[in-house]
Specification:
alpha/beta
Length: 322
C-alpha cells in the first residue's frame, strides 16, 4: 500500500464587509437592532438560560449530507455568557458525544468486528485532534499521533515535522486544531456536527473505507480579558481504511489514514505558525479588506473543494458568517 496520505487545506479569512457592518450596528445598540426582528430575538429561533445554555431542542443527528445550508440565525451578538448567540451551532451538540458511530457491519470483505474497531479509533482520533483541551491550547497532540499506524512513515514524518517546526508547506493545523493561548481563550465547549459512513473500496476485496466529515465550532475571546467573542469554524474530513489482515499489512490497533482534508473559517490565513489565529471585529476594521468569493462555513450540503492538479493546496477567501 502507498504509505502516504494525501492532505489538503483551505483557509477562509474574516467575514465580509456587509456582515461586519451588521455586527457593528448590533454591538453599538443591540437592543434596538434586535427589536427590528419579529419577536425580538427572531420568533424563538433559539433561547438560552442565564448560563448561556440553549433551551431549544438540539437538532437530530446528521445521517446524510444535508441538502441546504442552515438558515440564518438572528443577528445576536456572542458574549462570554452566550458564545453561540447568532450561530446555527447554538442547536448543535457539544463535545465528543456529538460524534456518533454508525452500526458496524461487515463491508467489502472486512468483518463487522474490524469495522467497529476502526470506527471507534476514528472517533478517538477526531476527539484527540480537535477537542482535547491541551491540544486546543497549542499542546502536542500525542494521543492522536499514537493512533496513527507507524507503517505510514511518510505521514508520521510529515506530522512530526509540522509540530516540531511548522512551515507554510507543512502546518499542523492541517490536521490538528490548535490556538495560541497567549492570544485567545476558549469561552465555551466546541459544538460539533457531522457524520461517519462506511463503504467498500471500489475494485478492492478486503478493504472498507471509513469516511468522517465533521464541523467544529470554537467560541473564543482575547486572552486575559475583553468582552468581544468571535468563533472559528473548522471542518475536517478523514478517510480511514479498515482492512483484512490476510490481504494487507498494517499494525493492529492503529489507524491507517488514507486521506484528510480541512477548511478553516475565521483565520488570519498566515501559514507556517502552527496555530489558528481567529480575527475579531477590530482586526477586520483595521486590517486589509478580504477578497474573493464569500463562503458559508456552516454549509455542509457541499463537499470540501479539491484544488486542481498542480494548483496550490491553500486558499484564502472570505466567509459570510461566523
Amino acid at each position: 500500500m502507498n504509505g502516504r496520505a494525501s492532505r489538503r487545506r483551505r483557509v477562509w479569512s474574516a467575514v465580509g464587509v456587509v456582515v461586519a457592518a451588521a455586527l457593528a450596528v448590533v454591538a453599538v445598540n443591540p437592543s434596538a437592532a434586535l427589536s427590528w426582528l419579529p419577536g425580538g430575538l427572531g420568533d424563538g429561533w433559539d433561547t438560552q438560560d442565564e448560563a448561556g445554555t440553549s433551551t431549544a431542542p438540539p437538532l437530530a443527528p446528521e445521517t446524510a449530507r444535508p441538502s441546504t445550508a442552515p438558515s440564518d440565525a438572528p443577528p445576536d451578538v456572542p458574549t462570554r455568557e452566550k458564545p453561540f448567540a447568532g450561530s446555527p451551532a447554538a442547536r448543535w451538540e457539544a463535545g465528543a458525544d456529538a460524534i456518533r458511530l454508525p452500526e458496524a457491519k461487515a463491508v467489502g470483505g472486512v468483518s463487522a468486528a474490524r469495522v467497529e474497531a476502526a470506527l471507534k479509533k476514528t472517533k478517538q482520533f477526531l476527539v484527540a485532534a480537535n477537542l482535547d483541551p491541551a491540544v486546543l491550547e497549542g499542546g502536542r497532540p500525542a494521543k492522536a499521533l499514537d493512533l496513527v499506524d507507524p507503517g505510514e512513515k511518510d505521514l508520521f514524518a510529515e506530522l512530526r515535522a509540522a509540530l516540531r517546526r511548522p512551515t507554510a508547506e507543512n502546518d499542523p493545523t492541517w490536521a490538528f486544531t490548535r490556538f495560541d493561548p497567549d492570544e485567545v481563550e476558549l469561552v465555551g465547549q466546541a459544538r460539533v456536527r457531522g457524520r461517519m459512513t462506511v463503504e467498500p473500496e471500489p475494485g478492492t476485496v478486503g478493504k472498507a473505507l471509513i469516511k468522517a466529515d465533521y464541523t467544529f465550532v470554537y467560541p473564543v475571546a482575547r486572552a486575559g480579558g475583553g468582552d468581544e467573542v468571535t468563533r472559528t469554524i473548522v471542518r475536517r474530513t478523514i478517510e480511514v481504511a479498515a482492512m483484512d489482515p490476510a490481504r494487507f499489512r498494517f499494525t493492529e490497533g492503529r489507524l491507517w489514514i488514507s486521506d484528510y482534508n480541512s477548511e478553516i473559517a475565521n483565520d488570519d490565513c498566515r501559514e507556517g505558525d502552527g496555530v489558528i489565529r481567529p480575527q475579531f471585529l477590530t482586526d477586520r476594521e483595521e486590517g486589509p479588506e478580504p477578497t474573493g468569493e464569500a463562503r458559508d462555513p456552516y454549509d455542509r450540503s457541499k463537499g470540501l473543494d479539491r484544488p486542481e492538479q498542480g494548483a496550490g493546496e491553500e486558499d484564502c477567501g472570505v466567509v459570510s458568517r461566523v
